[in-house]
RNA sequence: GGCAGGGUGGCUCAGUGGUACGGCGGAGGACUGCAAAUCCUUUAUUCGCGAGUUCGAUUCUCGCCCCUGCCUCCA
């Protein structure tokens, strides 16, 4: 079974064939850098990181472009609130974003363009749209895209212009010829950052940057364009309109949209204020737990965020680390010459990136490993598969012992180990009362002891 | 109002025209001085409701109920 994707454009699952054999060009909408990223952002980034890894694993050479929106109204507003320079705010937030992504195990894209570095490309695209009569300069000095001049408008989101217009929540703006027309370039107000253009000093509208940057790096037709479901309309619809109208070409062939992260069955978003930042979450849980939480649900399904959900992700990960720990305690661990992914895992990933199914294969492998260890059987093949799968998913990457002992300082470790040594003597002397007293003492400190063939090990008890 | 996506065991999450994957949890057992971990057995006559197509539907069709999202910035 080959690689298949559910293409939002047309809403069908279809075989994937890149435009150019062996190469995949993909663009993913990144973040607007005015604040910390939250769990919703984490989801997109992890989902497309998985896709990036999977495409490479499948033998493609991948050019992955993910932008930063570093100029926009919210950035200007936030910078003003902070009494901070726009550039310093965006620099800070980009650094924070990178920290979050590194913690989550997301690989850096091939290119991470920043909108402000692409003014000439955006201006050229807008000029081309004006030349073609598709964009116009309004009375207020805005350059607007005329939606009715683009016949395919609505193809991605399945919307019909007239339906949109009639039931619309869009404010009627007198400067617009049609309420759906959107801004390509807007004049700067006093004190705002501005760039020179044929229409005066100003800044670009939101949508044009993605069209300009994606086409600049990937050409006028490329393979995959991704982002959150909420970007489908109007953002992606507008990107298509701009790029196709200006350049011709098909723009993106496959559109992939991930579902939302919800809290209490409600979308997590900045505007509702019901969000947790990635930094918040990873201060309470190992970052891999957040990744596991995301990987455990298919990317297009809604994902309910809660403390309980994170705990469950952690417990699942614990099981995996438990196997790793047991394998590491084996005398002679070998890896096969080549780490082969099990076929069912490959099939699952090929099937529109079905990570829950892929995880099921991983857990089955873990179970077989445990069984083989219990029975003293050969572990090489399953362990090689286990490593191949966890490496691909970027899970279970920590040292197993460290995973279970995280958050304990050196002083406590010394204390724990001295108690374990004392208990060992008590056990040798068959003084089980003393032995149990020590176990109880450590349990009170949330430390669980495990007596194994190789001696006693300990781990931190997780608080549910 | 228009459009889109959902409703699967205690929780979570896959999936399929022939009665359901995995994880968490529960129960019993094995192992252990006691534990923990692991293993074994077990835990949905059932996949929102009703009707239809079919030898057979949770999976296809139609209707209904409920939930969420988009239609304004949003990953």
Q: What is shown here, in short?
A:
By secondary structure, this protein is α/β, with parallel strands linked by helices.
Structure notes:
This protein has 464 residues and is α/β, with parallel strands linked by helices. It folds into three domains: 4-258, HUPs (Rossmann fold); 312-402, Up-down Bundle (Four Helix Bundle (Hemerythrin (Met), subunit A)), CATH 1.20.120.640; 405-460, no CATH class. The chain is 46% helix and 17% strand. The chain contains 16 helices and 15 strands. The chain has helices at residues 39-57, 73-82, 86-103, 119-131, 161-166, 206-218, 232-247, 278-284, 287-295, 307-328, 343-350, 355-375, 380-393, 400-404, 410-428, 432-444, and strands at residues 4-7, 12-15, 23-32, 61-69, 135-137, 143-145, 182-187, 202-204, 221-228, 251-258, 261-263, 266-267, 303-304, 447-452, 455-460. The strands form five sheets. Strands 4-3-9-10 form a four-stranded parallel β-sheet, with helices on both faces. Strands 5-6-7-8 form a four-stranded antiparallel β-sheet. A three-stranded mixed β-sheet has the order 12-11-13, covered by helices on one side. α4 (119-131) packs across α6 (206-218). The protein is elongated and about 95 Å long. The model has no long low-confidence stretch (mean pLDDT 93).
